[in-house]
Each structure stands twice: as C-alpha cells, then as structure tokens.
Amino acid sequence: MSSMKFPLVPFAVLCLAAGSYALVPSSPTPLAAPSTTIAESNFVSVSATGTFAVEPTYFSMKATISKTADLADECVMDFVQARTRAVSGIMGLELSGLDVIGAGVEFMYGAPLDKNMNNGGFIMSSNGQDTISEGVTLSEVLEVKFSPGADSAAQVVQVAAAIDIAVELGLKLRGGTNVPYYGYPVQNTGDGNATVSGKLSDEDSAVAQGGAQADAMWRARVLAMNLAELSGRQLGGIRSVRQSAASTSWKGIGGGVEATATLTIEFELL
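^ that's the sequence the OP posted. Answer follows.
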C-alpha cells in the first residue's frame, strides 16, 4: 500500500494558526506595591501583684527534743522520759486550742549532729581525733499549735509563754539567726524562720488568696486603663487571665499572714 504524503507546514505557520501564543508574549502583570499599613494591636497585656492580709488561723512553734546515749535501749528510755515530760509541760499551758503533734522519732548512730556547726559534720581536735564520742541519738520535732488571742497584746503574751516553757524544758527552738557554717542562709519557709509563726488553714488560705487575686485584678485594670488612654484607645473586656505566682508569708504579730498573687491579664482595646 502506498503511503500518503502531506505537505509540510512550516512550524511558524502552525504557531500563528494557534493564536500566536508562543510567539507573542502577553503583557506582564505589574507587581503590587508593598503595603505600608501596620495592623493596630487589639489588646493590651499587663501583669500585677495583689496582696491581702488576714489573722492567722493558729500559731505554730517547732521544738526539737533529742537524747544521746552509748546504747540504743538506754537512749530510748531517756528519750521517752524526756518526751513525756516535755509534752506534759507544754499541755499545762493555758492556751486555747493547744495541741502537740510529733513529726516522728529518728534514730542516728554516731556523734550528735549540731546543725549550727560545720554543716552537721564532726568537730576535730588538733591531733585529728573526734572530740565527740559516738553513741545513739533519738530526736523528734514537736509542733506546738494554739489558737491566737483576740488582739495583738494577748497574742504577745501567748507566744512568750510558749517560748518560756520550751526553754525551761530544754527543747531546741528554731531561730531566725540560725545560719549554718560556711555562710549558707537558712531556707525561707514563708514565715521568716520565726520561732513562733502564724499559719492558715486550707479554708482561710483560700479566702486570703481570693482577696489577693481581687487586689491584683484591680491593679491590672488600672494599669491597662492608663495604657489604653495613652495609646488613644478605650479599654474593652478581658481576653485571658493567667496566675503566675501565689504565696503566703507570716508578717509577725499585728501584721498577720499576707497572701500574694500575681496575675497576667489581656484586655481588649476598642
């Protein structure tokens, strides 16, 4: 069978017949000019710390009782007698809501530790020998709790009586000037390491924290209103609230227990 022959059509003619898309480029689309408009911020974020002081729910005094002997059974007998005498003497105080709570007895074999010297290590003599003989030590921290008096004057009398009886009984009391060897500070437990400090129950702590949060909210709103006015805007509603810190600390007789709360709040700007 004979093959059919078609006349060759120049490639340029085909492109022209198709609309000359390949030969005649279209005009380039101009690029949009970069925007110079900056979007306005629609919110302001502020942080504020509020405080609220309340009377303590109870007073707390930590007192340590300890005894050391060569043998464990001898140490136990001495400790039991000393503990019975200590608890009986403390409970003899005429204080409202008085209670003594033991933290648990600890045994230690070795030289008695003194946390005021050399970080609880041994004291060595000039010839390198221990100056304190080994033995068995029993110790327990007793928490003495009692209800606060009606006013500051009555509370001072209560605290003085609690300290006096502990000293008379030979108990070791915590003190704010107790700084370990090498200059390391005593860890702050929220009461300034006071010998007797005011504490809050869970319910009273929640009330105090609520008061501190309300104070922080008020301070944050005042700050945000000032910033809104300076920026020529009006303050709107609250977008978000975050609490970043909360604590309570004993401020002493007459100062009560102070709760603090730090809030970070975002307000709308109108």
